[in-house]
Structure formats: C-alpha cells, structure tokens
Specification:
Layout: E1 16-24, E2 27-34, E3 39-43, E4 48-53, E5 58-62, E6 65-69, E7 74-77, E8 83-87, E9 91-98
Antiparallel strand pairs: 1-2, 2-9, 3-8, 4-7, 4-9, 5-6, 5-8
Length: 100
C-alpha cells in the first residue's frame, strides 16, 4: 500500500523536533530537525541505523571519528555505536532504525 510520509518543518514552532513518522514491527523512521549550533548528545541505539541528511550538512561523531554527512550520502551505523550530532546549519534528517 502506498503511503506518503510527511515531514513538515517544525523549526518555526520549536528549536528541536524529533518525530516518529513510520513504524513497523522491526523498525521505525524518525525525522530530526534542529537549529544551527545545536547538538544531540552522545548516545547509542540497539538497532542498525541509516541517517539520511536532507539539503544540509550535519557533523556526526561516531566512536570518536568525525564525519560530515550531507545530501549526497547516507551514514550507516551498526547497533550500539556511540554517536553524537552537531548542526552546522538548521538541520533536517530522516533516521531509519532497523532491528538486526
């Protein structure tokens, strides 16, 4: 069944937004939006993760290694990799978490 998932901008309403936009038994998709200069503190997830950054660049630090992720690539992480994010500009990204 076709389903169009909406990810409207929330930055006019609040500085940071995290919304679940799709969920199934073995995974989910989240939409993260946060302002330039904001960070998401170091954490890990017990799932495989695909990070798709849309139209901006976000600096990820994964297990101590910094990597710039932009609109032309997707960052894949294995379960429990510690990571944090820093927005170089206002940021909008979709994150897919999949149970291995």
């Amino acid at each position: 069944m076709l389903k169009l998932l909406k990810t409207p901008s929330r930055l006019g309403e609040k500085a940071k937004s995290v919304e679940t936009i799709w969920k199934v038994t073995n995974g989910k998709m989240l939409n993260f939006q946060f302002r330039k200069g904001e960070e998401i503190a170091e954490h890990d997830v017990g799932k495989e993760v695909l990070n798709n950054v849309r139209n901006v660049t976000v600096c990820f630090t994964v297990e101590g290694v910094a990597v710039q992720v932009g609109e032309e690539n997707i960052l894949y992480m294995t379960p429990l990799e510690k990571h944090r994010l820093y927005a170089k500009t206002d940021a909008d990204l979709c994150v897919v978490q999949i149970v291995p």
